[in-house]
Design goal:
four-stranded antiparallel sheet, single chain, about 10% strand, alpha+beta, elongated
Length: about 325
C-alpha cells in the first residue's frame, strides 16, 4: 500500500516538473523557430520568461522579419516591447516599407510607434494616399453673398515628420482658413462659382502641409453652394437700428417739447395769478383813495364811464385789439 502512494507521488512530481519545464521553455516555439531557419537559443527563451516577456510575440515577429530579409536584433525587439511598443506592428511596417521601396529604419519606426502613431497605417498611407473630407466651410465674398464650400484633400504620410508633426485636424483647419481667405478676397461670389479651382490654387500656394505629418497632393472642391445674402441682411439690420435711433431721438424731442409746454403753462398760470392778485388790489386802492380824499366821486364815475365806453367799443369792433395812444380809443392800424 505504501509503495502505491509512493508511485503516485512520483508521478505527480514528474508531471509538475514537466509543467514547470514547458512553462519556462516553450518547446513548440523553439521547434517553430528552428524549422523556420531562425536560430534562437534555449537560454534566450528562458530569459524572456524571467524578464516577463511573452516569447511568442518576440519570436514570431523575429521569424517574420528574418523571412522578409530584415536585419533586426532580437535584443532591440525586446527593449521595444518592454518600453510598451507594439513589436508586431513595427515589423509589419518595416516589411511593408521594404516592399514599397520606402526608406525606413528600425530605430525610426520604433520612435514613431512609441510616439503613439500607427506606423503601419502611416506606411500604408505613403503607398496609398488618403482622402480627407473637410466639413462645410462658410465664407462671404465682397458683395455680401455667403458661399458654402466643401473640399477633399488628398494627403500622403510624411514618414520623416511623423514624430512631432501635426495631425489631420491641422490640415482641415488650414484648408478651411484658405477657403475663407479665397472667397473673402473675391469681388463677387460669381467669380468663385465660375472658377472653383481658384480656391485650390490659392490653398495649395500657401504651403499648408508645413509642420504636419502629411504631404498635400491635391485639394479638390467637392461642392459650392450659395448661402444667405449677408450684405443685404446687414443693411436691413443697420436700417432698423437707424430707425430705432431716430425714433428714440424723436421721443426725446417730444418729451422736451411737452416739458417746455408744461413749463410755459406754469409760467402763464403764475402770471395770471399775479394779475388776479393785482386786480384784487385795485378796489382796495380806490377805497383808500376815496377815504383819504385823493379821489373824488365824480372822478370815479368818469373812470367807470370810460371803462364802459371801452367795453362797448370792443364789443362793436369784435376784436380785442389794444387802443391807440392819445385817449381817442381807436384801434392801431
Amino acid at each position: 500500500m505504501e509503495s502505491f502512494w509512493v508511485g503516485v507521488l512520483i508521478v505527480v512530481a514528474f508531471i509538475v516538473v514537466l509543467l514547470v519545464f514547458f512553462n519556462l521553455f516553450p518547446l513548440g516555439l523553439w521547434i517553430s523557430a528552428t524549422a523556420s531557419g531562425v536560430k534562437v537559443n534555449i537560454s534566450t527563451l528562458i530569459g524572456m520568461r524571467f524578464r516577463r516577456i511573452n516569447p511568442a510575440k518576440i519570436v514570431k515577429a523575429y521569424i517574420k522579419a528574418t523571412k522578409a530579409g530584415l536585419d533586426v536584433d532580437m535584443n532591440e525587439m525586446e527593449a521595444h516591447f518592454l518600453a510598451g511598443g507594439n513589436v508586431d506592428r513595427v515589423i509589419d511596417a518595416l516589411i511593408t516599407s521594404q516592399s514599397a521601396a520606402i526608406p525606413l529604419e528600425f530605430e525610426q519606426c520604433r520612435a514613431i510607434d512609441l510616439a503613439g502613431r500607427d506606423v503601419l497605417q502611416a506606411v500604408k498611407m505613403s503607398v496609398n494616399p488618403k482622402v480627407i473630407e473637410t466639413p462645410v466651410v462658410a465664407a462671404i465674398a465682397k458683395d455680401g453673398i455667403e458661399l458654402r464650400a466643401k473640399a477633399r484633400v488628398t494627403v500622403r504620410a510624411n514618414i520623416s515628420r511623423l514624430v512631432g508633426g501635426a495631425g489631420e485636424e491641422t490640415i482641415i483647419a488650414r484648408v478651411g482658413e484658405g477657403i475663407v481667405t479665397t472667397v473673402g478676397s473675391a469681388d463677387t461670389h460669381k467669380q468663385v462659382l465660375e472658377n472653383p479651382d481658384l480656391i485650390s490654387r490659392t490653398v495649395l500656394s500657401k504651403g499648408l502641409d508645413a509642420g504636419t505629418a502629411f504631404e498635400i497632393l491635391s485639394i479638390d472642391i467637392a461642392d459650392v453652394d450659395v448661402g444667405r445674402n449677408v450684405g443685404a441682411q446687414l443693411q436691413m439690420d443697420q436700417a432698423e437700428a437707424d430707425r430705432r435711433i431716430a425714433q428714440a431721438k424723436a421721443e426725446e424731442r417730444r418729451a422736451m417739447a411737452v416739458a417746455h409746454e408744461q413749463e410755459m403753462l406754469a409760467s402763464v398760470q403764475e402770471m395770471r395769478a399775479k394779475v388776479v392778485e393785482a386786480e384784487a388790489q385795485v378796489p382796495l386802492a380806490m377805497a383808500a383813495a376815496l377815504r383819504e380824499g385823493k379821489l373824488g366821486v365824480m372822478d370815479y364815475y368818469q373812470m367807470q364811464n370810460v371803462i364802459s365806453d371801452t367795453e362797448m367799443r370792443k364789443s362793436i369792433a369784435g376784436t380785442d385789439s389794444p387802443l391807440v395812444d392819445g385817449g381817442e380809443n381807436k384801434p392801431v392800424k
